Fold Ribosome maturation factor RimM.
Amino acid sequence: MKKEDCFYLGKIVSKYSFKGEVLIKLDTDEPEAYENMESVFVALGNQLVPFFITQCRLHKSNLLRVRFEDVNTETDADRIMGSELFLPLSLLPKLEGDRFYYHEIIGFAVIDKVHGPIGQVTAVNDTTSQALLEVEKDGKQLLIPITDEILVKLDREQKNLQVHCPEGLVDLYLE
C-alpha cells in the first residue's frame, strides 16, 4: 500500500500500559467512527506496514487506546512510538454537499465572487491554526482561509470551489 492511496488517521502519541498498549491521537471530527477497526497501516521508515488490532476503544476525547497484535511490551511500543497511522482512501465515508476532505479538492478551480477565476487548488495547509487553501495562478500563490464565510459553494461535478474572499485579499497576491 502506498501513502497516496491512503488517508492520514493519526499518530501514536504515548504508551498506555506496560503491556504494549498505545494511545493514538486521531485527526478526525468523528473519533467514534474508528472504534471498531481491525487493522491500520503504520508508517515505519518509508513503508506502510499493516498492524492488526486486538483491542481498540476511545480514551477521553479524540484519543484511541489500542492494543496491536505482536506489540506486547513497553519495548515493542517504543519501536512504533511517534509513528503516523493511515487507512485506505476507500474507507473514508463519503461527504455530501459543501463538506469535503482536503485531498479531494486538489486540482479544483477557485472562482471568486468578485474576481472570477483566481487559480487552482494545489494544496491545503492545515499546519497553521487556520487551514488555508494554496491556490496558484500564473506562477503566483494565493493563500485563502478555509472558513464558512469565504467558501460559498463546492461543485464536485465541475471541480470548482466558489469563494467570496474579503476585500483586498485577492488583489494583495495578484497585483
